[in-house]
Design a protein that fits this description.
54% of the residues lie in helices and 21% in strands. The chain is an alpha+beta fold. It has two domains: 181 residues, Endonuclease I-creI (Roll); 115 residues, Double Stranded RNA Binding Domain, CATH 3.30.160. Helix 2 packs across helix 6 and helix 5 packs antiparallel against helix 6. It is flat.
Length: 334
């Protein structure tokens, strides 16, 4: 009897030790975490053969939510650009600011749990981002951007110089686009999905900017030695930037364009053209030069004509992208 009792006791100890040796599989591996609930945290999972890679994947699983907001905001800016504001260079700064703010949010992601599968030896990582703390930061930043937008709007209204009005209006539009990106992020973090609706209309800001651009009396002027077709390229870029060309023959401003190309000859089966595109903003009343911008251009092809055409195509792309912002920058650099 005593032997039987001892044997049973030993068997119980053996079974208990066997159970203890098997680590418990965390609840978040297959689903939600009881400790880090989705109402309070954004959750990301990562699995890999190394711990660092698993951590990176978990962080990426959370951060991809915010990267989508960056992409959407960039697409919104691109649409605004083609709609009204043309080649406003200030949007590039807004895009950089959006990316910087997104990186700041992502830096708040925490590694909450780590578990290694005893069978496969792979690592599982749980990454979390606190909703309340992140939402508080985003709301504060949104409030600051709304205040900045109002300041730019007020500055645009009070300026007497038309180009200064345009520059301030452009800044207002771009700050508000940056704000809209934060709102998208806040809607992700905010459990209600509402965020903070703006009292300012981006569509109205775009319309106001477009109306200001149309008031600029401006026309292209191309130097005689420039390649054929440059006049059309400059005219098209001005129109895309939101300006209405003055055809009266007496514009207040000329955009003087000059482009020089050098034939570099045949190299490795390709003909090369390389040169400089120069744009100068001139105030016609006193023939005053308000500023000059230069860009390098090049083109290559298997014949000279196509090499020249490709250099011209590059000039066209540059001016459509940058001419509007360059004109404003030159005009306000008094």
């Amino acid at each position: 009897m005593k032997l039987s009792t001892f044997a049973a006791f030993a068997l119980s100890l053996l079974l208990l030790s066997g159970c203890a040796s098997e680590p418990t599989r965390p609840d978040w591996i297959a689903g939600d975490s009881a400790q880090y609930q989705r109402a309070q945290y954004l959750i990301g999972h990562g699995q890999a053969n190394t711990l660092e890679e698993a951590k990176d994947r978990a962080r990426a699983d959370v951060s991809k939510i915010f990267q989508v907001a960056v992409v959407v905001s960039s697409e919104d800016m691109q649409r605004a650009k083609s709609d009204s504001s043309g080649a406003m260079q200030l949007e590039q700064q807004a895009t950089r600011n959006i990316s910087t703010r997104t990186e700041q949010i992502i830096s708040g992601i925490q590694i909450a749990e780590i578990w290694q599968d005893p069978t496969s030896a792979s690592y599982h990582v749980l990454a979390v981002l606190p909703r309340l703390q992140t939402a508080t930061t985003l709301r504060q930043q949104i409030g600051e951007l709304d205040a900045t937008t109002r300041n730019h709007i007020e500055q645009s209204r009070n300026e007497t110089d038309l180009f200064m009005k345009i520059a301030a209006a452009s800044r207002a539009m771009n700050v508000q686009q940056e704000r809209e990106s934060l709102q998208k992020n806040l809607q992700v973090v905010d459990i209600t999905g509402r965020g903070v609706e703006s009292q300012l209309s981006s569509a109205k800001l775009k319309t106001d900017l477009f109306e200001l651009l149309k008031r600029v009396s401006i026309a292209p002027q191309v130097m005689a030695e420039s390649p054929a077709g440059l006049h059309n390229i400059v005219s098209g870029a001005l129109a895309q930037s939101g300006f209405v060309l003055d055809t009266s023959g007496r514009p207040e401003f000329f955009v003087r364009a000059n482009m020089t190309l050098t034939d570099l000859g045949l190299k490795d089966g390709w003909y090369w053209q390389r040169g400089t595109l120069q744009i100068t903003l001139i105030e016609t009343a006193n023939n005053r030069v308000r500023g000059t911008r230069n860009w390098s251009v090049k083109g290559n092809a298997q014949n000279q004509a196509d090499a020249t055409r490709r250099a011209m195509d590059q000039a066209d792309a540059i001016l459509k992208q940058e001419l509007g912002g360059a004109i404003i920058g030159m005009a306000i650099a008094k």
